[in-house]
Amino acid sequence: MNIVLFGPPGAGKGTQAKELTKHYNIPHISTGDILRANVREGTNLGIKAKEYMDKGELVPDEVLIGIIRDRLQLSDCKDGYMLDGYPRTLPQAEALKEILENINKPLEVVLNIDVPDKELIDRLSGRRTCSCGESYHLMFNPPLDEGTCGACGGKLYQRDDDREDVVRQRLEIYAAKTMPLIDYYNDRGILVNIDGTGSVEDVFKQIRDVLDPYRK
Ligand code: AP5
Ligand code: MG
Ligand code: ZN
Questions:
Q1: What is the Cα–Cα distance from 164 to 56, expressed in whole angstroms?
Q2: Is the CB of 64 inside a 6 Å radius of any atom of ligand 1?
Q3: Strand intervals (E) in 52-180
Q4: Which single residue of 60, 85, 104, 186 could bond 31 by disulfide (Cβ 3.0 to 4.6 Å)?
């Protein structure tokens, strides 16, 4: 099962991926999570990426293409992969196509999770994140124990880029640079729209209905 989870910041890509990766037993590859791990560890990549991320801007294409090329070679991708947050630009999509041709794992479905801007802002401003990749929402998906991750026991924090001014910038960049990929994948016949406004369970069910036929 070779999938991209697509959608604006706050659409619920990470939330859905957490369940989907268990359900279908394919790795969840989030470029945002990979970059944040590098920021935490203070790698050269992390130091460089942080400058862009804190402003809500995209990290340069060549950096992301390198990350994805390496990640998709790992053995856990042999039965498929679920990309989250990549591709975000036309050059990233073109590079992905070439990488996937070389490893003979062409993309099967791009799930476009659609949520209006107003709701995205509410979701991101109430989000609390764990370094394990789990995310919560103070109102919509509260952690059982305030401040603590139910999955790993880690301490929850608010992402630096979830401040309202940075959120607006991320939404603008999404509209300008990433949204054109909707047409790109629609033209290739592999885009499926998902209504992302329902509950986490509603959205999960819609996605399963789309993906189940691709199960091998
Ligand atoms: P990244 O980490 O990918 O952030 P993003 O795309 O902005 O998406 P988010 O993680 O903010 O949202 P999500 O869709 O995962 O939502 P979530 O499930 O958490 O990227 C961060 C930065 O890294 C970028 O700005 C860029 O700088 C850089 N970067 C990453 N990839 C890059 C690339 N390819 N190229 C260049 N730069 C790159 O949900 C959000 C909230 O809503 C949570 O609180 C959740 O609990 C809640 N929620 C989820 N579903 C529902 C629901 N159905 N109902 C109510 N609440 C819900
Ligand atoms: Mg995410
Ligand atoms: Zn955690």
A1: 11
A2: yes
A3: 81-84, 109-114, 127-129, 135-137
A4: 85
